[in-house]
Structures are given as structure tokens and as C-alpha cells.
């Protein structure tokens, strides 16, 4: 049978079925409407945001306002020439975020209260990873150069990227990673001068 003859046979069969349905007196039954299950939306797990396994930050912080720096420890150790610097991200108050995490109606706030089990994860989400160490936390600079390039003047803390060791006078800077959201009037960095 040729392709043309096959097509004609199929068309004739369909026409016969349609004619039989029209004059039979019984109404055709409609095909049942398929039921489509719509999944319930679930919040985006923070693990999908790249956090280390087991870390949670919910609600996630709004964009960075700036990094705030301070002297954490000026005891200097045995030689008296080492000052431990501390940094923390401050975020803008979008959608009452500061109030929801316990700070009230401030213009900007920390990502979480001190001691909150989600604080480290939330700080990570605002700062990203350091350019030179690849650890979660800000990149530290000494007079506009990476601290890791001048170990005699500045050092990344061995256990915590939010800390740095200042070994000389000058301006130190901690900056969030490029590509992480910053508020329109904000800054990716914060500075402190050691005199």
C-alpha cells in the first residue's frame, strides 16, 4: 500500500466514525480533565545560596550598607606591635529587616544579634569570600594592597576571615567580595587607621 492510499484509508475511517457518532442519538462522553498538581512553593534553602552545609540564614539579609571596622584587641602580644582588627557587615533596613531580627526600626543594622546561631551564615551571605584566601569573609587590605602581599605589615587571622592582624601604622580596609549586592548609597568596604 502506498503512502497516499494509507492516508486515504485513515481519512475514510475517521469520517465513518464521525458519521456513526452524529446519528446514534447518544451523546459522546467528554474526556476527563487531567488534574495537574501544583507544588506548594517552598522558601529557597540558603544552601542553594552557596553556604557551607548545615548553615542557615532565614530571613536572608538585604544589601550591604558598609563594612564596620574596629580594634578588637590592642594588647599587642609579647612584642607589643600587633593589633587585632575586627570587621562586620552592616545592612540596610529593607522590608523591616532590622526590626524582624531584633534591632528595631534602624536605618541599617548587623545581619543578626550577637550570639544568634545564624549570625555567621548571614554575615557570609553579605560579604562573600575573600579574594586572597578564598575563605568566607572580607578581603583585607593594607594601604590599598592585599594584606597577604605584605605579611610583615598585615596578616589575615588564621581562624577567622573577619579578623586581621595589623603590624604597622597605616590605613586598613576590609571589603566584601565583588558581585555581592551593595545598597545604592552604600560601600563595599570599611576602613580604619592605625596610628
Characterize the structure shown:
With 195 residues, the protein is of the alpha+beta class. It has one domain (50-194). The chain has three helices and nine strands, in the order αββαβαββββββ. A hairpin with a 2-residue loop joins strand 4 and strand 5 (145-146). The protein is globular, with a radius of gyration of 32 Å.
Short description:
With 195 residues, the protein is an alpha+beta fold. The protein has three helices and nine strands.
Distance between the termini: 98 Å
Tell me the number of helical segments per DSSP (H or I, 4 or more residues long): 3
Low-confidence segments, ≥5 residues, pLDDT <50? 6-11, 13-28, 33-48
What overall geometry do the principal axes of the alpha carbons give? globular
Radius of gyration: 32 Å
Oligomer: single chain
Tally the structural domains. Answer: 1
Structural class: alpha+beta
User: How much beta, percentage-wise?
Assistant: 15-25%
Helix content: 10-25%
Strand runs, count: 9
User: Could you give a short account of the major beta sheet?
Assistant: 5 strands, antiparallel
What is the H/E string?
HEEHEHEEEEEE
Mean pLDDT: 80
Task: Give the tags.
alpha+beta, 5-stranded antiparallel β-sheet, globular
Amino acid at each position: 500500500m502506498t503512502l497516499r492510499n494509507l492516508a486515504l484509508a485513515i481519512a475514510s475511517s475517521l469520517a465513518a466514525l464521525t458519521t456513526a457518532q452524529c446519528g446514534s442519538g447518544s451523546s459522546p462522553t467528554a474526556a476527563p480533565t487531567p488534574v495537574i498538581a501544583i507544588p506548594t512553593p517552598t522558601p529557597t534553602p540558603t544552601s542553594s545560596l552557596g553556604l557551607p552545609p548545615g548553615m542557615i540564614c532565614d530571613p536572608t539579609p538585604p544589601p550591604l550598607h558598609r563594612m564596620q571596622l574596629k580594634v578588637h584587641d590592642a594588647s599587642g602580644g609579647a612584642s607589643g606591635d600587633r593589633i587585632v582588627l575586627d570587621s562586620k557587615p552592616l545592612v540596610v533596613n529593607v522590608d523591616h529587616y532590622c526590626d524582624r531580627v531584633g534591632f528595631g526600626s534602624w536605618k541599617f543594622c548587623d545581619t543578626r544579634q550577637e550570639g544568634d546561631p545564624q549570625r555567621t551564615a548571614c554575615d557570609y551571605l553579605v560579604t562573600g569570600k575573600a579574594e586572597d584566601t578564598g575563605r568566607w569573609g572580607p578581603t583585607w587590605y593594607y594601604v590599598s594592597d592585599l594584606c597577604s602581599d605584605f605579611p610583615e605589615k598585615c596578616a589575615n587571622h588564621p581562624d577567622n576571615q573577619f579578623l586581621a592582624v595589623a603590624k604597622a601604622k597605616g590605613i586598613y580596609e576590609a571589603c566584601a567580595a565583588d558581585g555581592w549586592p551593595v545598597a545604592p548609597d552604600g560601600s563595599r568596604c570599611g576602613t580604619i587607621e592605625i596610628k
